[in-house]
């Protein structure tokens, strides 16, 4: 994983503005990366496939365009299941929290 400054890590882990919240087709919303990680763990395959398939990359786009994390966005493009996506996001959250403590 690439180095991230303490300020950038804090920003990536923070809540997004209300108008930028991710709205799932099942009615759930995510306002930050930890919520996305938790939501992906519980998400049905049907909901995941609605947002991530051959024609849609909603999670990756949101992480890149709203959160500002291009590295995680690239990993989410490789995710074929909600469990794998949850693992990528969870690992990234852990890494960013570590970066906030060390820099």
List keywords for this structure.
single chain, 103 residues, mainly alpha, 6 helices, 2 strands
Radius of gyration: 13 Å
Tell me the overall shape.
Answer: globular
Number of helices: 6
Strand order of the largest sheet: 1-2
Mean pLDDT: 95
The largest pleated sheet is described as: 2 strands, antiparallel
DSSP E strands, number? 2
Itemize the secondary structure elements and their pairings.
Elements: H1 6-13, E1 22-23, E2 29-30, H2 33-42, H3 45-51, H4 58-67, H5 70-77, H6 82-102
Antiparallel strand pairs: 1-2
Helix pairs in contact: 1-6, 2-6, 4-5
Characterization of this structure:
There is one protein chain. By secondary structure, the protein is mainly alpha-helical. The protein has one domain. The protein has helices at 6-13, 33-42, 45-51, 58-67, 70-77, 82-102; strands at residues 22-23, 29-30. It has a two-stranded antiparallel sheet. A hairpin with a 5-residue loop joins strand 1 (22-23) and strand 2 (29-30). Helix 1 packs across helix 6 (82-102) and helix 4 packs antiparallel against helix 5.
Concise synopsis of the structure shown:
The chain has a two-stranded antiparallel sheet. It is built from 6 helices and 2 strands; from the N terminus they run H-E-E-H-H-H-H-H. With 103 residues, it is mainly alpha-helical.
């Amino acid at each position: 994983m690439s180095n991230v400054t303490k300020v950038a890590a804090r920003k990536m882990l923070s809540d997004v503005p209300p108008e930028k919240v991710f709205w799932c087709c099942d009615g759930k919303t995510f306002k930050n990366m930890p919520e996305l990680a938790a939501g992906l763990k519980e998400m049905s395959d049907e909901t995941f496939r609605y947002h991530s398939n051959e024609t849609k990359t909603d999670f990756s786009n949101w992480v890149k365009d709203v959160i500002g994390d291009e590295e995680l966005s690239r990993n989410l493009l490789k995710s074929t299941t909600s469990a794998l996506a949850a693992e990528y996001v969870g690992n990234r959250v852990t890494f960013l929290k570590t970066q906030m403590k060390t820099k």
